[in-house]
């Protein structure tokens, strides 16, 4: 019998980001993927009326700005866009292949765009709207497995699809509903070290775990705001010990679960002013004074609509806050176990 983890020591590290349409900063960061050399690829999904903010911001975990690439699409009229190759309308997720190429899903265009690590546009999977094998309806979360195959949450079709990185259809599972293996607008995804797949089943307020071929292994979570309950979970991530992290979107918190879905703890947020934020405040010293006089500023540290969560190989947890244009970073220390460890 595997040991149960009763406590996880999460230590707040720092906050990354500030609200910017250009340069060092984010505009509604919706998801982040970790690359090599401590790089972070942050997918920013700005308002359709401010397309210049829709982009991928590249920086380091220590908040050194590197570059930005991809671009939003200018709106020509109500729901009319002038899009071309390499452009994004409503991007939803980002994933890094073994060769460090960057894949971006777009729920408006129903396509996957591909860039190299320097931001050069490489190509796309041609638009494939529909519900047939390999077709997409509002794709959201993406994750590569150990064989470099890409799993995509096909949110509008209430299923998961598996492809080669070139876009060849391999497998699918799921349908609309609330039973085991069924979905209601799924969103986030992660794959653990064993190849098992975790899906945030958004409107069913739960997390489901599957084998690589789609067999439902576990489901946990019910609607609510108490410990272990969920309200529109949007992101899910799994670390090397099998600990599960959930971005509990409408409950404004990060929840942590054991390998069997048992609740361990919840975090409400501990944000501080980021390095980029300090740089902006230092450019106008009066702004520091305004902050000191602000009422209720303590609320600033708390999560507001955490939407994406990512875990890297160094046990760092990154939580994207779209509304606050930032990422809160935590580091996991050794967990506390009860029972034998096998």
Label the CATH architecture: 6 Propeller
What count of domains describes the coordinates?
1
Gyration radius over CA: 19 Å
At the first level of CATH, what is the class? Mainly Beta
Strand segment tally: 30
Shape verdict = globular
Poorly predicted ranges: none
Question: If you had to describe this structure to a student in words, what would you say it looks like?
Answer:
The radius of gyration is 19 Å and the shape is globular. The protein has helices spanning 275-282, 285-293, and strands at 4-7, 10-16, 29-34, 39-44, 55-60, 65-69, 71-72, 75-77, 80-81, 87-88, 91-96, 102-106, 111-115, 121-125, 139-144, 150-154, 159-163, 169-173, 189-191, 197-201, 206-210, 216-220, 233-238, 244-248, 253-257, 263-267, 306-311, 316-321, 326-332, 336-338. The N and C termini lie close together (7 Å). The mean pLDDT is 91. With 342 residues, it is mostly beta strands. It has a single domain, classed as 6 Propeller (Neuraminidase). It is built from two helices and 30 strands. One of its GO terms (molecular function) is zinc ion binding. NHL repeats lie at residues 75-118, 130-166, 174-213, 220-260. This is 6-bladed beta-propeller. Keywords: Repeat.
């Amino acid at each position: 019998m595997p040991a149960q983890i009763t406590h996880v020591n999460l230590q707040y590290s720092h906050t990354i980001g500030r609200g910017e349409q250009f340069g060092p900063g984010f505009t509604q960061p919706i998801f982040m993927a970790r690359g090599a050399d401590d790089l972070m690829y942050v997918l920013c999904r700005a308002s359709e009326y401010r397309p210049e903010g829709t982009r991928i911001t590249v920086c380091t975990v220590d908040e050194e700005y590197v570059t930005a690439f991809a671009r939003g699409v200018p709106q020509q009229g109500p729901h009319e866009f002038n899009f071309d190759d390499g452009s994004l309308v409503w991007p939803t997720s980002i994933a890094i292949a073994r060769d460090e190429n960057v894949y971006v899903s777009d729920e408006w265009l129903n396509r996957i765009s591909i860039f190299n690590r320097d931001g050069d546009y490489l190509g796309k999977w041609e638009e494939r709207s529909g519900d047939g094998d390999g077709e997409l309806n509002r794709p959201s979360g993406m994750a590569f497995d150990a064989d470099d195959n890409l799993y995509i949450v096909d949110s509008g079709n209430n299923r998961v699809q598996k492809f080669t990185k070139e876009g060849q259809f391999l497998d699918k599972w799921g349908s609309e509903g609330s039973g085991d293996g069924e979905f209601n607008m799924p969103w986030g995804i992660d794959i653990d070290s064993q190849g098992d797949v975790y899906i945030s089943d958004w409107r069913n307020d739960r997390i489901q775990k599957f084998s690589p071929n789609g067999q439902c292994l576990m489901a946990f979570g019910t609607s609510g705001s108490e410990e272990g309950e969920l309200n529109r979970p949007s992101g899910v991530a799994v670390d090397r010990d099998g600990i599960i992290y959930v971005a509990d979107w409408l409950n404004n918190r990060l929840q942590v679960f054991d390998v069997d879905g048992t609740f361990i703890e919840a975090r409400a947020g501990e944000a501080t002013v980021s390095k980029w934020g300090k740089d902006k405040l230092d450019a106008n010293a009066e702004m520091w004074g305004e902050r000191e006089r602000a009422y209720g500023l303590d609320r600033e540290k708390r999560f507001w609509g955490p939407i994406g969560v990512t875990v890297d190989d160094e046990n760092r947890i990154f939580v994207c806050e779209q509304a606050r244009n930032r990422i809160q970073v935590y580091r996991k220390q050794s967990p506390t176990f009860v029972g034998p460890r096998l």
